[in-house]
Amino acid sequence: xxxxxxxxxxxxxxxxxxxxxxxxxxxxxxxxxxxxxxxxxxxxxxxxxxxxxxxxxxxxxxxxxxxxxxxxxxxxxxxxxxxxxxxxxxxxxxxxxxxxxxxxxxxxxxxxx
Length: 113
Description:
67% of the residues lie in helices and 4% in strands. By secondary structure, it is mainly alpha-helical. The chain has one domain (26-112): Up-down Bundle (Methane Monooxygenase Hydroxylase, Chain G, domain 1), CATH 1.20.58. The protein has a two-stranded antiparallel ribbon. A hairpin with a 4-residue loop joins β1 and β2.
């Protein structure tokens, strides 16, 4: 879903932050989201560097090291998202804003492990 600039009426090509939050089933606070977004943006920058290195004939060793950094950053972001959801399940088990069960969270965790 692309965000439309309400002043100019143009499509910015990027998802609106509210639209992303609406699709997310993890009930996270802005304080929970910021570190995850920082990790994802760092991974995005690293991935852009990998793409540029491959396009420009970068050294294999450098490309693989940078690719490993991207993979690690994505894993950490995933673990952080799951950790936030698990903490929510434990601290407020009656909250039904997130329909995921503990079993589902464990399966998600194992997909990253």
